[in-house]
Amino acid sequence: MDTVTADLRKAISMDAPWALVEAFASQEREKPEDADRGAQLIAQALERHGVPVTMHRPTLWLSMPIDASVTAGGVTFRAKPPAFCASVPEGVEGALVYLPQASGGTPLDRNPAASGALDDVKGKIAVIEGFALPNFVAGLEAAGAAGVIAVNPGEMIHWGTVSTIWGTPTPDDIARFPRIPSAAVNRPDGEALIALAKEGGRATIATELETGWYPQYVPVVDIPGTDGTDDFVLLHGHYDSWREGVGDNGTGNACMLEIARVLWENRDHLRRGVRLAWWAGHSTGRYGGSAWFADAFALDLADNCVAHMNCDSPGCRWATDYSNISCMSETLPLVQEVVSEVTGQTAKRKRPQRNSDYTFNNIGISACFMASSMMTDEKRAEVGYYVVGGCGGNIAWHTEADTFEIADRDVLETDINLYLEAVLRFANDEIVPVDWRRTAAEFAETVDGYAQAAGDRFDLAPASEAVAALSAALSRFHDAAESKALPPAAINGVNKALARILVPLNYTRGPRFTHDPALNVPPLPTIAEAAQLDGIGDDHMGFALTQLLRGRNRLVAALREATRVVEAAL
Length: 570
Known about the structure:
Elements: H1 3-10, H2 15-24, H3 32-48, E1 54-56, E2 59-72, E3 75-79, E4 92-98, E5 125-129, H4 134-142, E6 147-151, E7 182-185, H5 187-198, E8 202-215, E9 218-223, E10 232-238, H6 246-265, E11 273-279, H7 288-296, H8 298-304, E12 305-310, E13 324-326, H9 332-343, E14 348-350, E15 367-368, H10 377-383, H11 409-428, H12 436-454, H13 461-482, H14 488-507, H15 538-569
Parallel strand pairs: 4-5, 5-6, 6-7, 10-11, 10-12, 12-15, 13-14
Antiparallel strand pairs: 1-9, 2-3, 2-8, 4-8, 9-11
Helix pairs in contact: 2-3, 2-6, 6-11, 9-11, 12-13, 13-15, 14-15
């Protein structure tokens, strides 16, 4: 840790961030008007500390759950509708069908309609176990289900979202609006509904939501660098929440507030700029705020953003584990160094999933962090919790229970140190800390796995050769960088250009400046069909092989372009 980073970490105070946590503990930020007040609390806190903030005001497409119920066997069960499901206050009635194969154990990127196990779902209300997730609901709708009941794992019912559309829809997206009602129920009530489904019972789902256009604030802080370029690192997180949402994401907003304060007061120590953005419409807009920002500032991001970091659910009760961090391969060395420096722990990499405002993949921006601190497996077992997506692992996530007691001041201070150190490394290292050799190694492993799965049905040798050529060029490039044979500006230019090529190649299916659906994307998606050939009949094999050929062409062409970028610098 250099002297500047050490001094700036010493400047951290918990007064401002903890005051914001306390303020958010009594401020709901779900409905548009409540979210507005949350944004104003952030802006007021920044202004009190002399940090200038721009309050953008986009109009976002939002969906606010109001109420839901499930009536079956003469009993009405309490329920919650996920955002963007069909609003059917009068209710939809149908036979129940229990579908364990479309439930929690199924990989999140698998469409249950393609499993061949849903022949009996048409016109019925599907009962699944787990959370109401977009891929499950979309697959069940495609299979003809009349509605979906998601049986949550415990006593609490969790809010969620079932839209597969990322951000505000375009006309082409409208066909993917969810058109069936969905409802989440708790485990005890769900057990009764599962039993009723097994007996051939029927149920009625009623849902009520408000969906439409709403103006929302997006607070943004721009802290300039001193190197004379427009390059910047982006730190971001959502401020809208379900109810008070202290752990998801009031603590994250507080973390960003303190980093903004420290960096603004010490901005003369920044080489590159730092931009901080607090998003609206994360939950009720399916990442609507960050998608608007990516659209509105797309060219600036493409030209100047060196990396982005998401700050979601830090600083929560019992969350002391930093061993699994979401990050792209090229940022793993940095992540491991920062986690070790701040916590003394060793971090392993998780592939970033298609969530948590990872909105910038199609532009091509390297990224690290979604969550940071999490509960250990041992602590989760001790308190009897199941796995959830936020709040550091506390099952208050996406419920009314996400209140003040979920925040932990000491854990939050550790997370502020962690994020500040990571931001400073991206902002101040002479050479932006990414290592594309790691990405090339990931590509080689992915292509090899797909080649083994495809066997002699499809030839992935051209892809393997293109990855090998890129790896060799990158090895020479890093040797030249380490020997200082290349100027830092040239190295950074190559790193930025590689991000614009390789990040979309590994994380997107659609073109630049669009938004892929809110569904997980497999590694190197253009050739991912190679892993599915065993499940394809002879009558469809030709279609799959044609798709693979086109995907291989896109992959090889992009890898060759990346190799040319590297070799041109040598």
